[in-house]
Queue: 2 jobs
Job 1
Amino acid sequence: MRAEFWRIRIARILTGLVLAYLLAPLLVILPMSLTSGSNLTLPGPGWSWRWYELVLSDPRWLDALGNSLIVGLGSTLLAVLLATPAAVALAWGKFPGRQFALALIATPLVLPIVILAVASFSFYASAGLLGSRLGLILAHAGLSAPVVLITILASLRGFDLGLMRAAASLGAPPLTAFRRVLLPLVAPGVLAGAIIAFVISFDEVVIASYLTTAEQRTLPRVIFSGLRESISPAIAAAAVLLILASTLLLCLAAALQRPKDR
Amino acid sequence: MRPPQPLRPSALRGQVPYLLMLAPLVMFVLVTVVVPVALFLFRAIDNRELQAGFPQTAAALSGWSQAQGLPPEPAFAALIFDLAKAQEEGRAAALAARLNQAVPGSRSTVIKTAKWAATADLQGASLREDVLDQGKAWHNPALWSVIAHETGRFTSYYILTTLDLKRGPEGQLQRLPAEEALFLTILARTLAISLSVTAICALLALPVAHVITAARPRMATLLLAMVLLPLWTSLLVRTVAWIILLQGEGPVNATLQWLGAVTEPLRLVYTRGSLIVTMVQVLLPLMILPVLAVLKRIPPEQMRAARSLGAPWWMAWRRVQLPLLWPGLMTGAGLTFTFALGYYITPRLIGGEKDQMLSSFIVFYTDKTLNWGLAAALSLQLLVILALVAGLLAGLHRLTTGRVR
């Protein structure tokens, strides 16, 4: 049993190291973004919020944040509007070709992002939507709609169509049945899908760099081009803000998706 | 699989509302993604420009081959005719760009010749000498050979180029000379980086998955959250974090210096090492999660039974547990490998010039040199590899699960 003891010990140490490796980069940039100096060194000369103040006051960063929010919300709304009815159709419909339709809708998920970006570039260029927020909203909606669809499909899987019939047989008009029975059951899935869609758009950089000009730069786009020039603590601060935003949102989405005890 | 049911018109009629609900999303994806991607990939074989560009010249060149040196007089007259027409119709610049891809350095000569051809007074002059005076490019039989051979609606030129091949003077396949060959190296590099990242991920995922499975529920949840957290932060941000960590004055170098391991900061960023370290960190959760999912379903009694029958731990693990783990490892490897193959941001930001993968070159040819045909051919190559890997994994999956049952 001695060998067994050591084996477990070694596995635990290895796991600890691997988890440290997974988390370290995220944890280390937090103190680095709080430096009062203008270089990314550790330990810094002192602590300060100055880089966060810069990111939250410099028009370059603020405009980017505004663009990111507009594009994120717009593409999320569009993705949810497109994906929700489609998910209901795929879950309850009995028509042939549903698997094919699902595969088709999932194309943006399996394509390498660069190919998707180049194809989007030529499409939105021919549609005259290059360098506009609308073009990026549409492109991001295409990227996130399949994810929303899959999330809603998962939440519909547990839903029994019989519940709707039961509501109808008890005299509920279709709209009431929809509002009181279907909506409460599907809403968490839709909301979780919406959050994930927003995070996808909020983090996306390759399509954004093909479709936008300086005016519609999103937050990741500014980080991406800032990196090529010089790495300042402002980038670390912006990165920390992005980490916090997407982690909080995705925790919320995970909580919404957790199967409830009924 | 259910047997296909015959479609009764009445049954389908009830489905119309569902079809109407599905239609907007399908149309949206078709119009904004599927069709644009297909049109882009089509550029890999599209030869409309050259086909429409030199009809007369190509006809005049029939029967001529590159081995005979410069073509006969009528080809020069036809060339002037074709180029003058292209100039009038505004296609000359695109033609010059296309010829320049096949024979580098010919662009300016072609543009100049087209301008001249559209305006020149050609009465009684020696057309051959006049054309040859326009620039060096026309002295090169290879340029004439392109016009003579690329006459079809489709071209294999771009796809051959991505395989480091070209057509010889007689149309036979030739390897590109070593100093021009580029793309097989990139392909091999892309595969090598993706494979090593996948292998490292698999090795690191195994102990983590085992420890999480054996942990008490609360601890397991905490450990799982630690795996998920990096997955939930963006690729860009994680790459940024690694650049900050590994840079000259970064924490890693500072620690090494403080320990006295090095006297001068090491160059850690923009190397193959930094690229692989970052990619493994980014992709590892995608390997851990499927392995974990499979491992959770294996009853621990199986290992205990094997051990109690006298099998050493290693043999018990290899003979009992590993075969059951294969499906999870395969899924994880498939996810990791296919994601890695298409990587762009991470190699771009943290890799050196010699660490750029296929995607970076697709960007290069669309962004910098506007050689869309070559970019499309490279994309096609990437997609073919992805399809092959997916097919191979599906086959392996069927084999391994078949054996276990």
Note: Chain B touches chain A through 74 residues (CB under 8 Å).
Job 2
Amino acid sequence: MINDMSYYEEEDLERFGEVGKHAPELFEKFMDWYQACQEEGALSKREKALIGLAVAVTIQCPYCIDAYTNSSLENGSNMEQMTEAMHLASAIRGGASLIHGVQSHNAHDKISM
Amino acid sequence: MIPKTEKTRPFPQTTISFDKKLRENDLSLKAIAVEILQVNVGKLCNQACKHCHVDASPKRTEIMQRETIDACLKVLREHKIPTLDMTGGAPEMIPDFRYFVTEARKMGTNVMVRHNLTVMFEEGREDLAEFFAENEVEVVCSLPYFMQQQTDAQRGKGVFDKSVEALKKLNTVGYGKDESGLILNLVYNPVGAFLPPEQSAIEADFKRELKNRYDIVFNNLYTITNMPIARYLDWLRRSGNEKSYMQKLVNAFNPTTVDGLMCRNTLSVDWLGNLYDCDFNQMLEIPVSLEVGQTIQDFNPETFFGREIMTNSHCFGCTAGSGSSCGGTVA
């Protein structure tokens, strides 16, 4: 889905392993951790895929958005469910901005009569 | 085994051949039995689904004639093949559909019909639910999702609503209800270029949602991977998904699926009586290996057992993830 002429090339996801070139032990530890996080546990694979999608949209990582859209579909989710997950993440992100309005109020109150 | 002469039908492109993948895993693919005779009685269908590997549609004219049906019945009877799996197209649209079913049932053969649900509303086929029940046919219905948007996107506008009505009719005559013994199974196909979910998880979703939304019950749900040939391959190419989909299938190759592949215990027959290792090879015009007979009239179990299965790149569609067959996952 990533545009052919963009900074992010779709094919580059397949080259992720190259990141391990200069620090293979660290990369191996990361991959073991990453894979373990995907496995079914107290949360189902579907729940984890939806969390992954919500995070991917929030951090705006094109590789993650492609990957977790795929894995959400491959775990049986539909666009209604995926959209709700994306809204929740975005709403939290929006709320995190808006809550700083309190700091603005504090600053205002401090310097105002 | 790669066919000696590839016919005109297009194959998907992969970075590695299926045979090489088998060899890398010290595997070979040979038939072990003929427990299911899967008969594709024709390409005529009242629908033209986007993922159809048969390219079936209302415009197709290929349908099986009585002579070929009788040859299939003879093989079922003489060789005591336990199961007849009728597919198409919409099998119910050929004139001799009911003859084929009733004659097979008279000799005690299990009959399975791959039923698209909407054909039940075509003229002269309004009593199909009752016909299936009277003959204790196992009904296997396509329903890619429990929601309208996905189902209609794959199978055509209005298909979901008709499918719901048809499932209710099947329930009314006893299908899908434990006490009746009438088996109603559903088939899930991904609506797009991705792999199916884990079968038991999506089956639980279908059971819950169809019951809550429409009061529909069924027995089992089979997940089937979309096969990258024919109309679905055309769609993959048009939508720019062929390369990534095929890579996905190759990356998901699961060696433990090979023992359970349907080509090992199924023989596929086309509307003219020609024989193939599976319905997909049939559509790609790859006949059974040349050392054995080529038509239903030539069938001799001794030569068919142990035959090498003909393969090509599309076979990755049956070995990805938990595997795929007409009976769902295989691993």
Note: The radius of gyration of chain A is 19 Å.
